[in-house]
Amino acid sequence: MTTPTSVEAQPAESVRGAAPARRAAPCGTAAPVTAPRVLARCRDLVRPSLSSALARLHPWPGEMAAYALGWCGAHGAPTDGSFEGKGLRQALAVLCAEAVEAPGETAAAGAVAVELIHTFSLLHDDIMDGDGTRRQRETVWKAYGTGPAVLAGDALLALAVQTLTETPGPHAAAAVGRLSGTMSALVRGQAEDLLFAARPWTGPEAVRADEYRTMAELKTGTLLGCSAALGALLGGAPPPTVAALDRAGRHLGVAFQAVDDLLGIWGDPAVTGKPVYSDLRQRKKTYPVLAALAADGPRTEELVALLDSPVTLDDAGAARAAALVESCGGRAATLAEAGHHLDAARACLRSVSLGPRAAHEMEVLLGFLLHRRM
Known about the structure:
Blueprint: H1 35-54, H2 59-68, H3 88-99, H4 108-129, E1 133-134, E2 137-138, H5 140-144, H6 146-165, H7 172-196, H8 209-234, H9 239-266, H10 269-272, H11 278-281, H12 287-293, H13 298-308, H14 315-327, H15 330-350, H16 356-370
Antiparallel strand pairs: 1-2
């Protein structure tokens, strides 16, 4: 894997569409550590700073940002918070600060910055990919228009850099430098992903698995690595620890993308918000398909014929393509790929001294990511 080159403004309640308040957990015996509880705890810790950051935006892009985060409905309509994302990146920042024995609040600015960058990238990706739904509702460009969605994404990008620049303490400059390098990597990864679409399914110009892995690290892994590294950096960790956590996040990102690729074919529409076999219908060059095409035989030839057909895949055609991908080993190979990178992430975490509670919570998250619902 490659190594990267290395607020409060207004009260949170002033943000239109601010996140719904959460009830405190009842007193009593400590609840078992589960991924949903870890993610919720970290979101609750970061939420005041994230709300305050959004309050600095012009009200219109601020509203679109709140909609993208799941804090409100289209045009500021109230919502119950059920469309809010998991907050994996902000959780990594908080946990990695805690893992180096710093308070989770130390990483708040870093957590806000990576969440804003992640949301910015989703807004623009949805436009580039033509995706009309995300989390079971309209994407921002569908709800507000393409131009407004681009504007909201630009606003989030600028706000992320501004938030991190204003971080108190001696680490702000290094944090901004790391975030800037991450944004450059994200652009490179997205460029490669878009270029893959024009390449053939077979032959010398076909996308190879190692090329896809590099793209996944750039597009998904670098931001997860940045999240982990920023938490450790803002928490005062030494450079070797920051580097190890960055590597762990990068491996985690490749695993996360592999599982996303499985969900894009076999995911439950009630969970993914997209039709079953959605990636096959769009003929996306995802890891399961590339792994299946690496096999040799009549089933592979049939799969190529389906993917190369100018005819839109109907339900029967998409189901047949999914069955061929599975029978050619694509599903098993993708699960193995995800497992390999999760093991590599664990090895990175264990290579440095980390606080036991936060290290355990990160281990719980790793297992959760591999077994998301399909």
